[in-house]
Amino acid sequence: MLGLIGVFAVARITLSLKPVAAGHSGHSTAAVCEYLDALIVAGLLALFLITFVLRTFYIPSGSMVPTLQQRDVLLVNEFAYRFGKPHRGDIVVFRPPIASSDNFIKRVIAVPGDTLRISGGTVYVNGKAVSEPYIAQQPQYDLVIKNYDIYVDDGDGYEPLSCTSANIPPRSLWQAPDRVPNGFYFVMGDNRNDSDDSHIWGFAQMHGRFAAGPLAKTATTAQFTGRAFLLLWPFNRLRILD
After folding, report:
1. CA neighbours within 13 Å on the CB side: how many for 87?
2. Among 56, 167, 207, 218, which is most buried by a count of CB atoms within 10 Å?
C-alpha cells in the first residue's frame, strides 16, 4: 500500500510541476490533481488504520466453534486495550503463555477480582451461573480457582496446574487466594472440549514478562493484541461479534 501511495504522490508532484500550454485552461490537470489528492489522503488514512487500529486475523483451528469456524477472517480492534481493559465475554486476540508462532483467540470468562468455578458443565463467575448460548458443548471437566492456583478435575479428582507448564503467578501477585489476579484473565474457547485454553495453560496475561510457565524465563512478553469485533469472511456470515 505504501508503494501505491508513493506512485500517486509522484504523479501528483509531476502534474503540479508540469507547465500549462498556452491556450489551455488547465482545468483537466486540476481535476486529476484533486482526484490524486483524495487518493493519497485515503491511502494514508487506510495505512494508519491498518498499522495502529485494525488488523485482520485468520482462524487457524476449531477452538471457537460454533461462533467462529476454521478459516474465518476477522477484523480486530488493536486500539481497544491500549486505554481500556478486557471485559467478560470479549473475544480477544492475545499472545499465549506457551510457545506458539501465532496469537490465540479465545473468549474472556473471568477478569481480575472474579471468583470462578465450573461444575456439572456450568460456569459460575462470582457465584452466579453464566448463560452461554454460544458454546458448542458444556465442558466435560470441573474447575475451581482456589489456594492461589487453578484446580482441574478431568474425572480423577482435582489437580492444580503446575507453574512450570502453566501461567500460574506466584502468591505475591494474587490479591486473594480464590480470585483472578490483577493483570490476568481466564479465557476459554467456545468449543469447550476441543480448546487449549486457561484450563490447560493457565491465565492469559495483559502485559509484561510472563509470570510463570514455559515462557517465564524468556524474553517473550505478554500482550493482548485486541478485540475481535467483525466476522469479515466469508461474506455470507458477515456480522458483528458479541
Report:
1. 6
2. 167
Say whether both 106 and 225 belong to one domain. Answer: yes
- The DSSP result for 12-29, as a single string, is HHHHHHSPPPTT---HHH
Claim to verify: residue 19 and residue 66 sit in the same structural domain:
no
Q: Which residues are catalytic?
A: 63, 106
When divided into structural domains, the chain yields a total of 2
Give me the pLDDT at residue 242, please: 78
Rounded Cα–Cα distance for residues 102 and 192 (Å): 20
One domain for residues 92 and 171: yes
Which mean pLDDT values do the consecutive 10-residue runs of the chain (242 residues) have? 47 54 54 54 46 77 96 93 94 97 96 98 98 96 98 96 97 98 98 97 97 96 96 94 86
Q: What's the domain range around 142? A: 59-240
Query: Which residue from 113, 97, 111 is spatially nearest to 214, judged by alpha carbons?
Result: 97
Residues 226 and 138 in one domain: yes
- Can you give the pLDDT at residue 32? 56
Give the whole-angstrom CA distance, residue 195 versus residue 215: 20
Q: Are residues 45 and 151 located together in one domain of the fold?
A: no
Whether residue 77 sits in one domain with residue 30: no
Residue at 241: amino acid letter: L
E-assigned strand segments in 28-133: 54-58, 73-77, 91-94, 104-110, 116-119, 122-125, 128-129
pTM score, whole prediction = 0.81
